[in-house]
Amino acid sequence: MKNFKAGQYINQGTFKSFIPEEINRDWTLDDMEVIELLSQADRQLGRLDMYSEHTPNIDLFISMHVLKEATKSNKIEGTQTNIEEALQEREDLSEEKRDDWEEVQNYINALNSAIESLDDLPLSSRLIKMSHAILLQGVRGKHKIPGQFRTSQNWIGGASISDATFIPPPHPEVPRLMGDLEKFIHNTEIRLPHLLKIALLHYQFETIHPFLDGNGRVGRLLITLYLVEKGILKKPILYLSDFFEKNRQLYYDNLMRVRTADDIRQWFKFFLVGVIETARGSIETFDNIMKLQREVDNKIQNLGARTSNAREVVSQLYMRPLIDVQKVATLTSLSLPSAYKLINELERLGILKEITGAKRGKQYWFDDYIKLFN
Question: Residue 364 — φ and ψ, nearest 5°?
């Protein structure tokens, strides 16, 4: 990017805060390495979008992609909930794991609600605030004005503002900067390619840090919401939090390098590599899901009279790969003894795996499916 300037540090007395330049303006891209990576990322994203069109019943699998995104995005912020724990009910977890579990569930609800809201609302400050309110509802950040832009100074890193790693702009600047960001999202006259717009949007949001808590998670939500709103992906099936979590220090370093060295180029390269690797990984996951579908269908087609009910159960397992006998009975309208017999058959075939070891209240994983997301 020619003559890119990230912003400037302003003396606030005992500390200096960073005020970014507005981004709703013309951009000139002249870096061949970035252009080549952009070309690769576009190709992989196109391939992934094709899978969303040609994978039968793809909506069955999206919930697990969302679940994985929720666990990874929250893990970046320090929570420890894994996919298996996120699938369980709150009361089935030990007391010390419940707070993390609730934050993951809020992320899932915030993402699903935001995607649904895109039918009626544009990607905007209003939608961002709505998502933030859901994200912080009833959890550790519930006292940090959920759903509202901050009205005080915040900081990143350090025990106090005096030893902070980064200090975002003062709160009176937030409405102006978020207004500029919103205009940038919807300015069709800006010729910057969509993937670079998303990268710049994410960087700018994290730099503004408009909320007292939850900025990282909301900023990562924005990536998926932009892809869906602009029709770049027909389904919400690309999530970068796994890549960011695996490369957490690089993620933070590259964001910070933009502010300290005006190096937007390195951030673009990192972001595009994330899109390329994540899209390839998602394609591989869909391939493996379809392979597993064929294997499972071959196993249950020999169950005779139970085949139809087995298919009903398996279809539910692709959305939520944890089940118990009561759920099986409800899905199939079978009596509890008959539901137990069906579960026993699915266990015998290696489709279900009992996880509790209890005599009562047994729960069963669709283990081979869960492994595809770990």
Answer: -130, 135
